[in-house]
Specification:
The protein is α/β, with parallel strands linked by helices and 246 residues long. The chain folds into two domains: 167 residues, 3-Layer(aba) Sandwich (Rossmann fold); 69 residues, no CATH class. Strands 6-7-8-3-9-10 form a six-stranded mixed sheet, sandwiched between helices. Strands 2-1-4-5 form a four-stranded antiparallel sheet, covered by helices on one side. β4 and β5 form a beta hairpin. α4 packs antiparallel against α6. The longest helix has 18 residues. It is globular. The chain starts with a strand and ends with a helix. 40% of the residues are buried. The model has no long low-confidence stretch (mean pLDDT 90).
């Protein structure tokens, strides 16, 4: 098992956002978390990524295990440096005043002292540009001038440049036209197949999520209310009613 979340409780001040959730992600799997706004999906990813900004949730109880080891005391930058996991946040958070290539280069900062870094970085550039040819075409362009779909590709590409085996994505389809959305998920599926990339994706579009993922968990007001394979969740009457328009 790659990731195991045990009885995780997190809070924003006095407000508890997660009420003791437990779930796991196996190596090479694609797992989705779905739920309405305010369900706790983003709070879950921010807790896993160990983000310590003032508006980030604070873990009050439970544990997060990566390859059997607790990461509750691990700094966010260590997750990247040790090639453990990487988060593609909601809203992309790219550096708009930098070019596409400079954004990708920023993700390699933690590996700069590694003697094999130059060769590996070149390989990763090739992989990102093969996956997203548009980024190669626009590699000298300032990122703020990209379309929303291209910016999302850049956010994913930047995560891939960290060389982490596990990436988490928060609402990757948000604001994307259907064609670009399917292109994005096709690329992620290819990564999973060719690189055995483990993926945890938070998604409001349940139909897209179930088509993409192997398994899923349904969050509601900070609790997991259903879990199973994508097919099982797709056929669950309560899930159909709440998230699939059934």
């Amino acid at each position: 098992m790659l990731l195991e979340v045990k009885d995780l409780k997190v809070s924003y001040g006095n407000i508890e956002a997660l009420h003791g959730i437990s779930f796991d992600v196996n190596r090479g799997e694609i797992v989705t978390l779905i739920g309405a706004n305010g369900a706790g999906k983003t709070s879950t990813l921010m807790s896993l990524a160990r983000l310590g900004r003032p508006e980030a949730p604070v873990v009050k109880a439970g544990d997060i295990l990566f390859e059997g080891q607790s990461i509750l005391k691990t700094e966010p930058y260590e997750l990247i440096q040790k090639k453990m996991m990487c988060l593609v946040p909601e809203g992309r958070h790219i550096f708009g005043n930098l070019t596409v290539e400079e954004n990708l280069q920023m993700a390699c900062y933690g590996r700069r002292k590694n003697p094999d870094s130059k060769a590996r970085t070149a390989e990763l550039y090739d992989q990102v540009y093969d996956l997203f040819p548009r980024l190669y075409e626009r590699r000298r362009q300032r990122s703020e001038l990209l379309s929303g779909g291209e910016q999302q590709m850049l956010a994913v590409g930047r995560a891939l440049m960290t060389d982490s085996p596990f990436i988490m994505l928060d609402e990757p389809s948000m604001g994307l036209a259907p064609k670009l959305m399917f292109e994005m998920f096709r690329a992620l599926k290819q990564l999973n197949f060719t690189r055995q990339m483990t993926i945890l994706v938070v998604e409001q579009n349940a139909k897209v999520a179930f088509d993409f993922a192997d398994r899923g968990y349904v969050l509601a007001t900070g609790e997991i209310i259903a879990s199973g394979t994508s097919e099982q969740l797709r056929n669950n009457p309560e899930v159909q009613k709440a998230y699939l328009g059934g």
